[in-house]
Amino acid sequence: MKKLLLFLMLFTYSFSVEFGNKVLEPEEAFKVVFIKNENSLNIKVELGKDIYLYDDKLQVNITKPKKVELLKELELAKPVAYDGFIVHFDDLNIEIPYNLLKSKLDSNKYEIEFKFQGCSKAGLCYAPMSEKQVVFFEADVNEEVITQVTEDIKQKDELTSSLTQDTEALSETDNIAASLKDSSTLIVLATFFGFGLLLAFTPCVFPMIPILSSIIVKASQNESMSAKKGFFLSLVYVLAMSFAYTIAGVIAGIFGANLQASLQNPYVLISFAFIFIALAFSMFGYFEIRLPSSIQTRISKTTEGKERQGVLGVAIMGFLSALIVGPCVAPPLAGALVYIGQTGDAVLGGMALFVMSLGMGVPLLLIGAGAGKFMPKPGGWMQSVTKIFGLVMLGVAIWLLDRVINPTISMYLWSFLLLGSAIYLRVYTHIISQLISTIIFIFGVIMIVGAVSGATNPLKPLDKFTSKVSLAQQDELKFIKIQNIAQLEDAILKSSKPVILDFWATWCVSCKELDEITFKNDEVIKRLQNFTLLKVDVTQNSEDDKAIQKKFGIVGPPALIFWDENKQEVKSAKIVGYKNPKEFLEILDKNFKN
């Protein structure tokens, strides 16, 4: 235990040493300004301390009315060799003569794009970035440059400025981030432990319960399980889970990565689903999963060799569980990541995430101690219980696949699992087993009927047959899909009503809660008729997805951003994580007039 905590402290401290007390934001590292002169458009690039640009990543293009490359005909400062690359350490001033634009394309309007990518000497590299500027010419007047832009462009510039302006009122997430800066360490840690206790009862943490339970049942096959032993195994699981989540959180906070998206792509989820399927078949007795023989040999040389093998296996499962079936993004998590990203303080941010994870693990510790206390002595009956938990592991695998496969296919998989479980339980002659198997079989049949009818919610398989016509069906909320910042700005500019932007992803469990509960509530639907509703799907975590999330400080879905009728962002209304209909309406009442 001490070694694990020591390793965590050294890990987080190494981050603080490596990146210092301040990690430059892209806007601080690269300040790009377009300046319109009498005969040219100048692009000035001011670099932050120890920041450099890759020479081969620089691009200057006309993008409208059609794409034309310009960089080869422009003069740039001479680059230098550094660490095997050709780079620019000095500020750049790139001059684009208007005559050059006219010689390339005969037009009265040009959109100029500057693309670049750079790194810090400390080893932190930034994603590729771009800036754009529109240049107008007056037709048929000796190519004299018109420096004023249209009213529409002015409004867009004002809108772009308003998207990032600070306001006195802060959102829940920003308040949590501020508390990390202003409160004492002990208060911060105690607060985040409380946050963890609340997060422990979210749907994203529930799958860890059967995983831990199956581990304890498996361990009980060959030896008696006491409350102390059960608690110890749970503690190992929770510490490994907390350690993994802290590492992922610190990295996400420093590099600005989407905490969920990197581990929620189809390939990763399908791979881990097969791991749980393999665990299930191991519990069915087809084979036994063991550590590599070389590792077993080393561990077995100690007096507690067999026990340590089991502990290592539990730790691995805890580590993997945190990465794949860990909690959804919620205000406390987002607040900690925002704090780490703004200050570079990986130590306090990492400690906050660690104690929050421990708080999330409290119910798991209670389950472990309770299972150990009430678990009967090993015997033949344990084989049957182990196989039942094998069925549970198959359920976890389907739960993972549900994020990336067609919902109808998921319904069929759930129905097959239920029918198979019912048939398996019929083997037992005990009246309770017979009753349970009958109930499961009936629900499995209902699930198949629901799948055939087109239902997609396993908890409401007969929704197509039983649901009443309500306001939610008559006036279902219609969200306009946008893909990038430019489309967002256009949509806000054209809207005559307040605007809501919903960050959403197919693998986001809490997003589905918002869709199925909050956004189908009659009162919510009625209230949102007075809003323009926008949705951005960040499932693929593309460059556009990353850019729009970074602009608004979103660490992952679900999140909701609001603008008022004057196209000003209402930061105090910002929502991160799931809110039930009552909580959602309270936020609207507080920030918007009826």
Question: Helix and strand layout, with pairings?
Answer:
Elements: H1 2-19, H2 26-29, E1 30-36, E2 40-47, E3 51-54, E4 59-64, E5 68-69, E6 80-82, E7 85-88, E8 92-97, H3 98-104, E9 109-116, E10 118-120, E11 129-137, E12 145-146, H4 151-164, H5 172-182, H6 185-199, H7 208-219, H8 227-255, H9 266-283, H10 293-300, H11 305-325, H12 331-343, H13 346-374, H14 381-401, H15 407-425, H16 431-453, H17 463-466, H18 471-474, E13 480-481, H19 485-494, E14 499-504, H20 509-516, H21 522-528, E15 532-537, H22 543-551, E16 559-563, E17 575-576, H23 581-591
Parallel strand pairs: 13-15, 14-15
Antiparallel strand pairs: 1-2, 2-8, 3-7, 3-10, 4-5, 4-9, 6-7, 9-11, 11-12, 14-16, 16-17
Helix pairs in contact: 1-8, 1-13, 4-19, 5-12, 6-13, 7-11, 7-13, 7-14, 8-11, 8-12, 8-13, 9-14, 10-11, 12-13, 14-15, 15-16
Quick synopsis:
This protein is α+β, with helices and mostly antiparallel strands. The chain contains 23 helices and 17 strands. Among the domains are: 26-136, Thiol:disulfide interchange protein DsbD, N-terminal domain (Immunoglobulin-like, Sandwich); 172-290 and 309-370, no CATH class; 480-591, Glutaredoxin.
